Sequence to fold (88 residues):
Amino acid sequence: MLGRLKQRLLLWVLEREVNKMPKSWRTSIAGVALWFATVGNAIFALVDADPTTNPDWKIVAAGFVAGWGLIQARDQKAHEAEKTNGRR
Fold:
C-alpha cells in the first residue's frame, strides 16, 4: 500500500513539474532528478546503521535550489523555437 502511494506521488510530481514547462522538458526532468537524488542521499544518511552519519543540510538546500533553477530554466531549442515563432 505505502509503495503504491509513493509511486503515485512520484508520478504526480513528475507529471506536474514536466507539464509546467512542456517546451523545456529535458531541463525540467534534470531538475526533478536532482531533487530525487538529493532527497535520496539525505534519507540514506538518516536511516543507515551508523548513528554518526547525518545529512549535510547545506548540500540538501543547495540541491533543492539547483533543481528549482533547472525546472524554471528554458532549453536552448525551446528558446530558439519561441524566437522563430515570434518573428513569423
Q: What stands out?
A: The two ends are 52 Å apart (CA to CA). The chain has a mean pLDDT of 80. Helices lie at 2-20, 25-47, 57-72, 76-87.
